[in-house]
Structure formats: C-alpha cells, structure tokens
From TrEMBL:
Keyword annotations from UniProtKB, A to Z: Kinase, Transferase
EC number: 2.7.1.49
A GO molecular function held by the record: hydroxymethylpyrimidine kinase activity
Enzyme superclass (EC): transferase
Organism whose genome encodes this protein: Halopseudomonas bauzanensis
Listed name of the protein: hydroxymethylpyrimidine kinase
GO cellular component, one term: cytosol
CDD domains xref list: HMPP_kinase
Any one GO BP annotation for this protein: thiamine diphosphate biosynthetic process
C-alpha cells in the first residue's frame, strides 16, 4: 500500500488576473510553487494589460469573490492568505469579511495600486480604505516606496517617515527600494516592537513587471511553511532577486521575473 504524499501548505491568493502572465495571479502561482506551496487563486479583478502598461480593468462582483474564497476555505487547510489587486472599496470590504471569519490566518498584504508601467489599478480612495481596514489585520504589508507614500499620504516621504506613520496601523511593514538611482537597493523591514532590519541587494539593469507580486507571494509561502517572519522576509527577498536576475523580456515593455527554473517541466 502506498504511503499518502504529505500535502503542501495551501495559500489563498486574492488577486487580479494579468493576461501577460507577468504579474497578478500567475505570478502568485509560480512563486508559491517555487516555495513548495499550493496556490489557491481567487480572482478579484480582470485586467487589460501587458508588459508595457494597463489599459483597463474590471473588478468582479463581491459575491463571486466571497464564493471563490469560501469554496477554498471550506475544502482546504489554508495556511496563509496573500492579497493583491482589489481595485475598489467594495473589494476591500470583501477581504475584511473573509479575514474576519478566519482571523488565525496570516495575511500578507501587497497594496497593489499601480502597475509597474505606471497605470492605475484602483482609485485613490482604495489606498485610504486599505490603510484603514486592511493594514490593521495584516501580518505584514509589502509596499514599494511610491505605494508607501500613497498609503501614508506623504508624497515626498522617506521610507522611515512613511513607516513611522503606517506602523500606527500595521504589525509589520516591508518597504521595498529600487525606485531611486542608488547602486544598491535597500529593502527595509519595520516591526511594531521597534526593531528594523535592512536587506541590501545589488541593483539590476532594466525594469520589471510583477516583482511585487512575486515577493509578496514568496513571503506568504514562507510563512505558510512556518518560517519565522524576519527569516521569511530574507528568504523571499533573496528568491525575488534571483527571479529578476534571470528575468526575460517576452514583450515590448518590462522584463518578467523567471520564477521557475527552465527545466521545471522537463
């Protein structure tokens, strides 16, 4: 008689669909597979975008998103939740409702407000609603510096200044760098207990589509596997840097992270 194969940790992903495959749910799925986890993707929005920019998007009805999440949570032992694009205020409330029913699950909140090409993925009030309603229930929030400035309402704020304001609402905050012209990129983890951790990596040439999704999903996977927070952040950052180092350019715009090895399906 065969011994049953142990199941991989399940991560519920509430994110938008990117038809280019660079960001969104495909990024979530690939990054989680690379961590040894199983991705359960629940679609929050459909987008018209490519590696150049976003042309349009449509947020799904909240009943559909609630039904997707409930179907997964009723069936699988979910170990973590990863949050991506929401797009409107109703979807923020939808996620709050899901998490209120499962407060034991660590939530990794990637505040997707704009695509890598600069196109908007939600109205300005979505950032405010996320700050007020989602940051307090997230285990960790992973904005890049421009997103942190939107959430903190500090248009020219430094990472430290944004963290001072946002840590009043969230437990842990990872602000990623790379949006200036520094030679080395500094990613900073701020914890409510007052500790800070800086992770430095060399800057890579080019710009990338889906790096934030990749990082947040990898981090959710590490937490689902039971890794301690600071170690999980480092592991996820190291993995993401490697996907950018090995990135490819399938279209006319940004590079797409290579989240799985070339021989993955061979």
């Amino acid at each position: 008689m065969n011994t049953p194969t142990p199941f991989r940790p399940v991560v519920l992903c509430l994110s938008g669909h990117d038809p280019s495959g660079g960001a969104g749910l495909q990024a979530d799925i690939e990054a989680l597979i690379a961590q040894g986890c199983h991705a359960a993707p629940a679609v929050t929005a459909l987008t018209v975008q490519n590696t150049v920019d976003v042309m349009d998007f449509r947020v799904l009805d909240r009943e559909w998103v609630l039904a997707q999440a409930k179907a997964v949570l009723d069936d699988m032992p979910v170990s973590a939740v990863k949050l991506g694009m929401l797009g409107n205020l109703q979807m923020v409330d939808t996620v709050v409702e899901i998490m209120q029913a499962h407060p034991e699950l660590p939530l990794v909140c990637d505040p997707v407000l704009r695509a890598g090409g600069g196109g908007s993925l939600g109205k300005d009030e979505v950032g405010y609603a996320m700050r007020e309603k989602l940051l307090p229930i997230a285990r960790i929030v992973t904005p890049n510096l421009p997103e942190a400035r939107i959430l903190a309402e500090l248009p020219n704020g430094t990472a430290d200044e944004c963290a001072d304001k946002l840590l009043q609402r969230c437990q842990n905050l990872l602000i990623t760098g790379g949006h200036g012209d520094e030679l080395d990129i500094h990613n900073r983890l701020y914890c409510r207990d007052g500790s800070t951790h800086t992770f430095t990596c060399p800057r890579l040439p080019g710009s990338y589509h889906g790096s934030g999704c990749t990082l947040a999903s990898a981090l959710a996977g590490r937490l689902a596997l039971g890794e301690e927070l600071v170690s999980a952040v480092k592991t996820a950052l190291d993995y993401t840097w490697r996907t950018l180092r090995d990135a490819e350019q399938p279209g006319h715009g940004q590079y797409v992270p290579r989240r799985l090895p070339l021989d993955f399906c061979q």
